[in-house]
Amino acid sequence: MADSFLRVAGLSMRFGGLLAVDGIEFDVGEREIFAIIGPNGAGKTTVFNCISGFYRPTTGQIVLEGQNIAGLGSHVVARRGVVRTFQNVRLFKHMTVLENLLVAQHLHLKTSLPAGILRTRAYRESEKKALERAVDWLDEVGLRAFANREAGTLAYGHQRRLEIARCMVTGPRVLMLDEPAAGLNPQEKKELQGLIRQLREQRGVAVLLIEHDMSLVMGVSERILVMEHGRPIALGTPDVIRHDERVVKAYLGEE
């Protein structure tokens, strides 16, 4: 694995009297595919919300390339190169597929309000580059034929792909996928697995993944963190996790 460039250390999150996450520590290397798994209520999405800036952690550090980003707003974290999808698809459903990818680039365009009003040369060039990136990603995820369709009219599997493209069009370093296989059929899950590998290999991103589909997790991940009741119980390669007694107990219980 390459040197760690995303590190989570001593992460905890308290909601009033509830300690939802406690003592989470892991690191992700460049171009690594890293999964977080656990039963419902284990705290996985809370960890995601802390990393992506939706929650301010109670304690702990989230270090991206040497800088602590814990507590920064989600828009700041996104600008630093950490982007995410959600359990439920959150597209602009009444915008076209192409418009969804153009809107996603808003924070990254080097333009100003006066430049937009006057439509300066720099503004027009920025618009052109944004359009080119959007079309490039529609090709990447196989949705170019749907560019002018309203996003809400796409099949569910295509909406999932569009959500990933909307993240990737911003040029992230870390792509966070929150249950991307939810609602997909077996063929779509197989295609998703290939897409995740493709993003890592061809686009150079690290992928941080929450997922309940164990065939996908075991098939694509290089390392896995297992959580239960807000705490880590195991960390290792898929083969190590598959045979860990604590993991079997957490998922299946014991007699």
Provide a descriptive summary of the structure in words.
The chain has 255 residues and is an alpha/beta fold. It has 2 domains: 1-81 and 172-183 and 205-255, P-loop containing nucleotide triphosphate hydrolases (Rossmann fold, 3-Layer(aba) Sandwich), CATH 3.40.50; 85-167, P-loop containing nucleotide triphosphate hydrolases (Rossmann fold, 3-Layer(aba) Sandwich), CATH 3.40.50. It contains 10 helices and 10 strands. A 6-stranded mixed β-sheet has the order 6-7-8-3-9-10, sandwiched between helices. Helix 3 packs parallel to helix 6. The radius of gyration is 19 Å and the shape is globular. The N and C termini lie far apart (38 Å).
- Helix segment tally: 10
Helix/strand order, N-terminal first = EEEHEEHEHHHHEHEHEEHH
Top CATH class of the largest domain: Alpha Beta
Largest sheet: 6 strands, mixed
Which architecture of the largest domain per CATH? 3-Layer(aba) Sandwich
What structural class do helix, strand and pairing data support? alpha/beta
What is the total domain count?
2
Average of the residue pLDDT scores = 90
Q: What's the helical proportion of residues?
A: 25-40%
In CATH, what is the homologous superfamily of the largest domain? Answer: P-loop containing nucleotide triphosphate hydrolases
User: What proportion of the residues form beta strands (DSSP E)?
Assistant: 15-25%
CATH topology of the largest domain: Rossmann fold
Radius of gyration based on Cα positions: 19 Å
Euclidean distance between termini CA atoms: 38 Å
Q: How many E-type strands?
A: 10
- The best one-word shape is globular
Strand order of the largest sheet: 6-7-8-3-9-10
Ranges where pLDDT stays below 50 over 5 or more residues in a row are none
